[in-house]
Specification:
Strand content: under 5%
Number of helices: 23
Distance between the termini: 69 Å
Order of helices and strands: HHHHHHHHEEHHHHHHHHHHHHHHH
Radius of gyration: 23 Å
Number of strands: 2
Shape: globular
């Protein structure tokens, strides 16, 4: 009851005209930021931090939160329509969403992304409301061994599920892990694999890799291998979801939400693990005609699940930020900076020292989710019109977007050369059927996994036995082995069964 009363007080603050306006502007700006590749919510919030000097604390936090979760939806728009992820979290959406767009189902893909985001965001907000302090208590108990094994689980599921061959998936993953090693060593500070290039000391930016592998590679591949395109325009049929689309989407939304919410609560960072796990789950569970659409015409479950997982993670990530003061992403790190600008330190005491602010912020999450749905569903038809642009002009536009986004991050010409090189690598990978997603996963999670592994071994005083001495870590090792072994055993058994009647 106490929580309900606090939430109602939060709503009373959040629905004042001024705060509603800040929420609307934040959601609209967040969507626009998500659509533009290379910017991202962290950059947008960082650029707007100076407003904290002039604007009331509650209004500015509502505004920044609107940008934060608005960007998550916006990123899916360009991923689906142009195969250009605005955010790393949208890369999974690009895999099936863009294939759906090419087969004339862009409207259905955008609609399922919008509704899935709403369902997951609302559920995760309820979790934030009810369980923030309790979940944080559990999350604190997880240490480096558990985090490292979580990342190993992500590596194995992504590599084993994506692409036609596990070997190719693993090869792509190792390319990503190797690229993640470039830059300064996190502990010793020594330069690694930079080739004497100052520009590589900070490592290769993940957005650069995502845009290069997906957008630039898409354009170059089309130019080199698709030859003269007979149709001048992308196909466009219906704009709305059919009964079958609804039937296939809602279980994926629920599964994605249930996958994403716990990952947001754990202060390990990133939306990549739950979105890829969600995609892997949907691909495994699909049967018959639905399964055949994966990697072909585009499966709607491959958009619905990851988008729900993405949004649930993003919203639930506020739990470690508000209750522990631990940011789990670039954007939440900037949000932490915004809190500190007002002299507020998020942590266990925040719910008592700044209760009015916290509950107004949580109430604004509910309002923001409704706003995003109202803003984006009517715009589905408008976004889909992008597909009516003839392909040469469309591809030229994608290249301009990609290069402007890449150059805008550091104003470096070196980044443009790097973008082109990554684009060429993407073309080679597509040509020889290597999945590109494991490269990105390896790059994002590789440095994090390395840091957690080093910390875990240090805790174990140099012994690797720390990984199977802790129950949660041991459970994750068993799951990893099951992911690698069980599918092969089942495949071998089914092959044996199929051979028996033939022999008889």
């Amino acid at each position: 009851m106490e929580i309900f009363n606090a939430l109602m007080a939060g709503f009373a603050t959040a629905i004042t005209p001024a705060n509603l306006l800040w929420a609307l502007v934040g959601c609209a700006l967040g969507t626009a930021v998500g659509v533009l590749p290379g910017i991202g919510p962290a950059v947008a919030v960082a650029m707007l931090l100076p407003i904290t000097a002039k604007v009331d604390v509650t209004a500015s936090m509502i505004f920044f939160s609107g940008i934060y979760y608005g960007a998550m939806y916006g990123g899916s728009t360009t991923s689906i329509l142009l195969n250009t992820p605005g955010e790393t979290a949208s890369m999974v959406t690009a895999m099936e969403g863009n294939k759906m767009a090419k087969s004339g189902r862009a409207g259905a893909a955008l609609a399922t992304a919008a509704i899935g985001s709403f369902v997951a965001g609302t559920f995760a907000t309820i979790v934030v409301t009810l369980f923030a302090p309790y979940v944080a208590d559990f999350a604190v108990k997880l240490g480096p061994p558990e985090y490292f094994m979580l990342m190993v689980l992500a590596f194995t599921t992504v590599s084993a599920v994506l692409g036609q061959s596990s070997l190719r998936g693993m090869t792509a993953l190792f390319v990503g892990l190797a690229a993640g090693l470039i830059g300064m060593d996190q502990i010793s500070g020594a330069a690694r694999y930079t080739g004497g290039k100052m520009e590589l000391l900070d490592g290769i930016d993940i957005v650069l890799v995502a845009v290069g592998l997906f957008a630039v590679a898409e354009v170059l591949y089309a130019a080199m291998y698709e030859g003269k395109v007979e149709e001048s325009q992308n196909k466009l049929t219906r704009v709305h979801m059919t009964k079958r689309d609804w039937k296939r989407s809602w279980p994926a939304w629920i599964r994605g939400t249930l996958l994403g919410t716990p990952f947001g609560c754990i202060p390990a960072g990133g939306t990549e693990i739950p979105t890829f796990l969600s995609y892997a789950t949907e691909k495994k569970l699909a049967k018959g005609e639905d399964k055949a659409e994966f990697g072909g015409k585009g499966a709607i479950e491959g958009v619905a699940g990851p988008e729900a997982a993405n949004n649930a993670t993003v919203t639930a990530a506020l739990i470690p930020l508000l209750t522990l003061g631990i940011p789990t992403s670039n954007t939440t790190a900037v949000l932490l900076g915004a809190f500190q600008n007002y002299g507020i330190n998020p942590g266990p005491q925040l719910f008592t020292s700044s209760a009015a602010l916290v509950w107004a912020l949580i109430a604004s999450l509910y309002i923001g989710n409704v706003m995003l749905l109202v803003l984006n569903l009517p715009m589905v038809g408008l976004w889909v019109k992008l597909l009516k642009i003839p392909k040469p002009q469309l591809y030229a536009g994608i290249l301009i977007f990609a290069t402007v986004g890449a150059y805008g991050m550091r104003q470096s010409t070196f980044d443009l050369y790097l973008l082109l090189a990554i684009g060429v690598l993407g073309v080679v990978m597509r040509r020889f059927d290597f999945p590109t997603a494991p490269v990105v996963v390896g790059m994002i999670l590789g440095p994090l996994a390395e840091a957690q592994m080093r910390n875990a071994v240090a805790i174990g005083e140099g012994s690797w036995s720390i990984f199977w001495q802790r129950p949660m870590s041991l459970a994750l090792i068993v799951i990893v082995l099951a992911v690698l072994i069980v599918p092969r055993v089942l495949k071998a058994l089914s092959a044996k069964k199929a051979a028996e009647p033939a022999a008889a």
